[in-house]
Amino acid sequence: MDMHTVVSSPLLLVALLIPLAGALAVLFRGSDENVREGISSVASILLLGVVCSLIPSVLKGKILVLHLFTILPGLTITLRADAMSMIFALVASSLWTIAVYYSMGYMRGLKEHAQTRFNACFALAIFGAIGVAFSDNLLTMYLFYEIVSICTYPLVAHHQDDEGYKGARKYIVYLTATAKFFLLPAMILIYVLTGTLDFAANISTGIFPDGVNKVLVTMLYVFCLFGFAKNGIMPFHHWLPGAMVAPTPVSALLHAVAVVKVGVFCTTRVMLYIFGVDTMDALNLGIPTAYFVGFTVIMASIIALSKDNLKARLAYSTVSQLSYIIMGVALLTPSGIEGGLIHIVNHAFSKITLFFCAGAIYVATHKKNISEMEGLGKTMPFTFGAFAVASLSMIGAPPVGGFITKWNLLVGSMEAHQIGILLILIGSTMLNAAYFAPVTFKAFFNKPPAGEGYIGIREAPLSMLIPILIACFISILLGIFPQFMMNFVKAVTG
What is the rounded CA–CA span in Å between residue 265 and residue 271? Predict the structure, then answer.
């Protein structure tokens, strides 16, 4: 029996319309850079305010819904805010606020072109991400998922050179093709089998009636797993390293907020609220999924080790880290699911810090490769200090947020009696340390190359440095005071 109270809330529509209105206002008033960035920052603060205003109701166990329109019986466009929605909505809205200020410093520092288009598409990507967070059913989620793919295409192709177009082409083909080939047929079949696409009220039951063909449900599950290719699972991950040709604020957006998080959020949402823990357990779908994504965790970490380009290393780190989220949920144990879901938050703040640092290094020095950063830590101590802290989070060391993830995942693998998953987690932690630690070590403890004293190089502009330090500080807070976000996670697992 589900004890949740369902309440209608127009605030969900307000939250959705704020980034949309922000994007339109930027397009109309974009000629003046101060007005343009003022609009983006006001919109981001308003969105964060509206999302935060939903917190008390959701923590009291209410599910907020807003029905927009009905297409067919059981097929509606409806918004919903529950504990799981709030995890992602809080991440997306708070990181947008930080990213707006950072982008200002980055884009102006490098005198980038087409800043109006950049700001407008950025806001539209957040519009899509908030739509995904507040979807009440698979159809609404699918529509917003596609909006995110389309709106981020101009961002990936921002530089408008051969490399940019190539990366963007790979990006859009991968993401839209997988959604059309896998997700759309799966969605139609689920509707035929169940008569609805609405998410279940809790994570146990799922929406499939008894007596449904098991092979068919397993096939639909596989289709959903690969259909949301933004989740970066191998072999459909190639778009992600390809997309790093975009400006660094875009990479940060892709890797921390709008794209990959949309992918893993959709995947885990469908695992828990369409299939449900009981169905996945009965059909033995959970543990094979955990081992399958475990391969991605290890392989992507090994590839990351071989990359000298800092953004490329971070991109493969993302591919690996995303699979932690799916792995945790696939364990189907309370601690596993909690570890997976909390990693949506921990990874977001740590990874945006890492990409912001990469961008700050590029703006200050025009260096992209790790081998060129020897001794840089002495001239850019704040940037590399924040990089070191965020690296610790990715490795899973206390007192940073990533520790909470790793701890829950390790407990979850023990609860599921999966020694293999335990070994994957320990192995990947060692690999995480192997590709993150050298960056900080070289910067702080190696001497600059002969004849290069880094004269005149100093920290990136304050508009970039302050967001870096804020994101870094939040990563530490999430490690020391995890309870606030864990309240939402525990509300999901009940």
Answer: 10
